[in-house]
Specification:
The protein has 303 residues and is mainly beta. The protein contains 2 helices and 17 strands. The protein has a single domain, classed as monomeric porin ompg (Porin, Beta Barrel).
Length: 303
């Protein structure tokens, strides 16, 4: 029974939704959970420094701070005979600071809704769909899965402003990843490509296009017997160069970020996660520091 409780506590800690768009480092994206499990997430993150909300904007010397809250819902489901998850997250942010554009220093102070995100992930191998009673005897080995994340252009946006909370465009992010457990250690690796639609109402009524952004993230995770776990995280991304009215912008991304995550169970239904990350090398954008906390409540799935 103790082993079953620890397994369920780990599940509670495995389905956090990123608190902000800046938090691109997310351990335990590929894991198993009893079918029908629901998760309600509330979180807060603070970023400071370089551009953290839309790193493809053609601006420089960004000195911005942003406080973001998020409300999210996730559910473990069976899809085509395989275990899967669905989640949706809606952020609310307050942003202030300055950035340089075309030789001018612009200031922005704004608060409102950001672009919501929806995501579906499917485990193709190593994580069968299980009921709560079946899950008690499940032990992870190798999991291979994929996700598709979509950002909806519903956030606050003003085309007369360069810096906004919403991006006024869609993006689609397919990803494939693998998770391998060895004892209490888990190694994860995932690769993704983000595709963007055009923003036909960019700053001053311009049209902005963006090339795909390629990313890789990796995690080294240690699971404690109590159900807590910690992770060292890293991500690299490249590409994403934009053009404004057909003129290429000098904002090709070739960036590294590192971070750490610690998740702690409170009880079978509740858990808390803490995370930090920082830019190590940034050709443009994403050279910022981030710290966040998220609370998660779990129900259903035979709990």
């Amino acid at each position: 029974m103790r082993g079953a409780a620890q397994a369920l506590l780990l599940v509670v800690l495995c389905t956090f939704v990123p608190v902000t768009r800046a938090q691109d480092i997310e351990p335990r994206s590929y894991s198993n959970a009893p079918i029908g499990t629901n998760f309600l997430i509330a979180g807060y993150a603070y970023t400071r420094g370089g551009l953290s909300f839309d790193s493809s904007l053609p601006i420089s010397d960004a000195q911005l701070s942003m406080s973001s809250g998020v409300f999210a819902y996730a559910r473990s489901i069976e899809l085509w005979g395989r275990s899967a998850k669905f989640d949706v997250a809606v952020p609310y942010s307050s942003l202030s600071g300055t950035a340089d554009f075309a030789g001018q220093t612009l200031r922005r102070d704004v608060a409102g809704l950001g672009d919501p995100r929806a995501r579906v992930s499917v485990n193709f191998y190593g994580a069968p769909p299980l009921t709560a009673s079946e899950f008690r005897s499940y032990r992870q080995d190798l999991i291979i899965g994929g996700t598709l994340q979509v950002s909806l252009p519903l956030g606050q946006y003003d085309s007369s402003r360069l810096i906004n909370l919403g991006s006024h465009r869609w993006f689609f992010k397919p990803e494939i990843g693998a998770s391998k457990s060895v004892g209490q250690w888990t190694l994860e690796l995932a690769a993704a490509t983000t595709f963007y639609t055009d923003n036909a109402n960019f700053y001053g009524g311009s049209v902005r296009r963006q090339d795909p952004l390629y990313s890789v993230q990796t995690h080294v995770i240690y699971s404690f017997m109590s159900g807590a776990w910690g992770s060292l995280d890293a991500t690299w991304f490249s590409g994403g160069r934009t053009s404004t009215n057909g003129i290429l912008d000098n904002n090709l991304q070739q960036n590294w970020r590192i971070g750490a995550t610690f998740a702690l169970p409170v009880d079978v239904r509740n858990s808390v996660k803490f995370y930090v990350s920082s830019g190590v090398s940034a050709r443009t954008g994403n050279n910022f520091d981030l710290a966040g906390i998220a609370w998660q409540y779990r129900w259903g799935g035979g709990l």
